[in-house]
Amino acid sequence: LAGGIILGVALWLRHDSQTTNILYLQLGDKQAPNTFYVGIYILIAVGAVMMFVGFLGCYGAIQESQCLLGTFFTCLVILFACEVAAGIWGFVNKDQIAKDVKQFYDQAFQQALMAESETNNGRTVVKTFHETLDCCGPDNAIGAVTPLWRDDLCPKKDSVLKTIFETTSCHKKIDELFSGKLYLIGIAAIVVAVIMIFEMILSMVLCCGIRNSSVY
């Protein structure tokens, strides 16, 4: 059940419309940075393997098989080590992921401002960011005045005042998007780690109990 829940959360994060709209973009020959998906794929793998390993442990307990329970414990140790490694990787790269996406956006934004024709896909990339995240411009002076003189790039507001005061910078929205998603991944990883620790303890207790009872 825990494996199924983790797999479900990971698949939901993987197919979330906001992240997929942004991370599948291409600026010329350059693909949007998709380092974020590394953590998602690890969660998907852990969830799928946990489901199989859970069945193995359940079957081993029913059959009172020390071999199956020992295999179950070994698999859990390996999964736990992978998860700790993924957690360390996520903590180290949590700021870098948003930074890479912001740099990609800034490059597209500069191209969109300089482009005179629709043939340059920088404008398309920028408009996708703006529509998906409901934002406009980076965190600088150009970004602050962009809604006033390049309204073709930004989401339309009801009035000029709303355009000035209700427009949020895309850098801020990108930070909010990925910090929220990484927060969910962190919670899922902690829950899985706690469950794994209890599983390892209980599997060893059961394995020792079976071994001791077989002596008499």
UniProtKB/TrEMBL annotation:
Xref: InterPro entries = Tetraspanin/Peripherin, Tetraspanin_animals, Tetraspanin_CS, Tetraspanin_EC2_sf
Question: What stretches pass through the bilayer?
Answer: 36-62, 68-92, 182-206
What are the protein's UniProt keywords? Adaptive immunity, Cell membrane, Disulfide bond, Immunity, Lipid-binding, Membrane, Transmembrane, Transmembrane helix
**Record carries keyword Flavoprotein:** no
Q: Is Membrane included in the keywords of this UniProt record?
A: yes
Subcellular location(s) of the protein:
Basolateral cell membrane; Membrane
Q: Which GO terms describe its biological process?
A: adaptive immune response; regulation of cell population proliferation
SUPFAM superfamilies with a match to the protein in the record: Tetraspanin
A GO CC term assigned to this protein in UniProt: basolateral plasma membrane
A molecular function annotated in GO for this UniProt entry is: lipid binding
Coarsely, its chief localization is membrane
> What intrachain disulfides are recorded?
C135-C170, C136-C154
* Membrane-topology descriptor: Multi-pass membrane protein
Q: PANTHER family from the entry?
A: CD81 ANTIGEN, TETRASPANIN
What family does this belong to?
A: Belongs to the tetraspanin (TM4SF) family.
Name of the protein this chain belongs to? Tetraspanin
Q: What is the lineage of its organism?
A: Eukaryota, Metazoa, Chordata, Craniata, Vertebrata
